[in-house]
Amino acid sequence: MHRQKVAEVEKLGQTVRDLEEALLSGAAAANAVRDYQRQVSELKGEKKTLERTLSRAMVTENRVATAIASEWKDANDKVMPVKQWLEERRILMGEMQQLREKLSIAERATKTEAQLKERFQLRLKVVEDGLKSSLRSSIHSDVRSTPNGLSRSRSVNGADVSFNPLTNGMSTRKSSSSSFRLPATSSPTSMMLKHAKGASKSFDGGRTSADSHCSTKSCGDTHKSESPKDETNGLSLSSNSSYVVKEKINGNPADPLEATGDDFVSGVLYDVLQKEVIALRKSCHEKDQFLRDKDNSIEMLSKKIDTLSRAMEVESKKLRREKAAIEKEVASLRAVSRSRNIDA
């Protein structure tokens, strides 16, 4: 009995010793784990320090590279940061949009002015045609009403004029000078302005050709009634510097205007229309110059955008290279830490 108890006590003592050894081995393992954890934390701290140093070195390298790259470049081609590039790109895109809108507005204005110019040219042509037809009709009517077989000589505005009868009953003369101007009287001018008004109304659709013909006849009668006041103004202009002069015969005045197939337009009306045409041409030239300036500015902006895009591509390539280098360094650090763990 006593021997059995002694054997149990020995067994328990052996168990206690085994447990103590197990505890001691567990403490050693715990200490080893703590050492490994401490080493890992130290490696993490070293990694953070290396990353900070690497980032500082990268910033310094970028600054040095930017300074070196910008030394030999112009102000427009210098390398700039990405944020600044994006901001300038946004501003330039807004300016380009505004320029496009202004360009479209200028094009619409130019088209409108071109249409107005065509309308004025058409109106001028219609007025000239009306004046030609009215003057020819009045001349033919006056030629029919002039008596035949008369030969006289007369001084008009200081020039001697000789008359000789012809077979058809019309009297012609040749002036000593090669060219004369029509005298500026009130009655021919009023007649031409009336004809111009009639032609403009016919262009607007307010009258027909018959009405214009009637107005022409009435204007011719009015001129016949008013022409006795100015007897010395009976000259008409022709292309070969020949003139036909008519005088009062039996109290019937002659028409002071007779054109032998030449184009004739009122001076006042022609000056007004010519001024409008010149103004339209000037405005068109200004619009063309404005469009050229806008095209040049758009080209400059596009060049700047291309330069900025190239700089952006260079920066992106640099960032990719730096990222790859950092990944390689991190992989090497991990390999070093693993080798240390294996050695420990």
From TrEMBL:
Cellular localization per UniProt: Cytoplasm, Cytoskeleton
Region listing for Disordered, in residue ranges: 138-239
Gene Ontology MF terms: microtubule binding
Keywords: Coiled coil, Cytoplasm, Cytoskeleton, Microtubule
Protein known as: Microtubule-associated protein 70-1-like
Short name of one Pfam family: MAP70
Highest rank taxon of the organism: Eukaryota
Coiled coil region boundaries: 2-109, 298-336
A single cellular component GO annotation: microtubule
Biased composition (Polar residues): 138-156, 164-174, 209-219
Protein transport as UniProt keyword: no
UniProt similarity note: Belongs to the MAP70 family.
Membrane-spanning ranges: none
Biased composition (Basic and acidic residues): 220-232
Principal subcellular localisation of the protein: cytoplasm
Gene Ontology annotations of biological process type: cytoskeleton organization
Keyword RNA-binding: no
